[in-house]
Structure formats: structure tokens, C-alpha cells
Specification:
The protein has a domain of 110 residues. It is mostly helical. The two termini are 21 Å apart.
């Protein structure tokens, strides 16, 4: 639970990234909940999707308001609780691929730097590496959302 919650927190750092990726993940988990007849989780998930959409109006680049740790930890916690309630915690490895990769990038960077004194990435979490590589914030958010959507569709088809 702690790792998954913190993974969404690490994803927060570019305008609209954590909320848009989380919204897609929560929507996928809500669809899985509907397919399994767990309507209370679907209702909570779809409500959170609506909240994320409302938040994104003000959080897309350039952001007028920020989520901060409170919001990102809430979204991460909601994602974990939905997966646990559905008795599918391992589905997070698929649907939450971006937060997972963001966390892995930080872990690899720290371990590699401690051993060699060199870096694998220009900066971690991973979205900052792409930012320093010249990608615009909008491109990073778009690409990460598309990747999340693809993996969420795969997860829905697998379940």
C-alpha cells in the first residue's frame, strides 16, 4: 500500500501528470468493478474521475493550482484501496505502469549512484529525465497518458 501510494506521489511533478494518469487508472479499475458487479467501488472511482477532471481544468500547463502531497497521496491511496477491494492488488503492476516506472527510475538512480557515483537518468523521477531531454510538459503528459491507457485496456481485457 505504501509503495503504490508513494508511486503516485512521485508521479506528481509536472502540471496535470499525476491527476490525468490517476484518472485513467481509476477509470479502468471502475470498469473492472462494474464488470465484476462491485458497484460501490465503481461509484467511488467514477466520482474520483469527475473530481480529477474538474481539477485538471485548473492544473493543466500552466497550472493555476497544485495538488501537492495531500492530493497525490489521496489518489494513490484510492487506487490501492480499489485494487485491494476488488481482490486484485497485482493488477496495479499493469494499470499503474507509469507510477511503477517512475518509482523504479528513482530506485535505480539511487542504487546506481551509490555504487558508481554516476547517474542512469538525467534526473528522476522519470518525467524529469524527459523534461531535461527537451520534451515539453504537454508531450510528457500526453505520452504517459497514452501509455497508461494502453496498459489499462490490456488489464481490462485480461480480467
Amino acid at each position: 500500500m505504501l509503495a503504490a501510494t508513494n508511486a503516485v506521489n512521485l508521479t506528481d511533478g509536472i502540471d496535470g501528470l499525476a491527476s490525468s494518469v490517476s484518472m485513467i487508472i481509476i477509470a479502468a479499475l471502475s470498469i473492472i468493478a462494474i464488470n465484476r458487479g462491485v458497484y460501490e467501488i465503481a461509484l467511488i472511482g467514477l466520482t474520483l474521475c469527475g473530481a480529477c477532471l474538474g481539477f485538471l481544468i485548473f492544473n493543466l500547463h500552466p497550472a493555476k493550482i497544485f495538488m501537492g502531497d495531500t492530493g497525490s497521496l489521496l489518489l494513490g491511496g484510492a487506487i490501492v484501496i480499489m485494487a485491494i477491494y476488488l481482490k486484485m492488488p497485482l493488477i496495479l503492476l499493469i494499470v499503474a505502469i507509469i507510477p511503477v516506472l517512475e518509482t523504479i527510475s528513482v530506485i535505480l538512480q539511487v542504487m546506481y549512484f551509490k555504487r558508481t557515483g554516476n547517474r542512469i537518468f538525467k534526473m528522476t523521477p522519470l518525467h524529469h529525465h524527459f523534461e531535461l531531454s527537451g520534451w515539453k510538459e504537454g508531450k510528457i503528459v500526453s505520452v504517459f497518458c497514452v501509455i497508461t491507457l494502453i496498459f489499462c485496456v490490456i488489464a481490462i481485457l485480461l480480467v
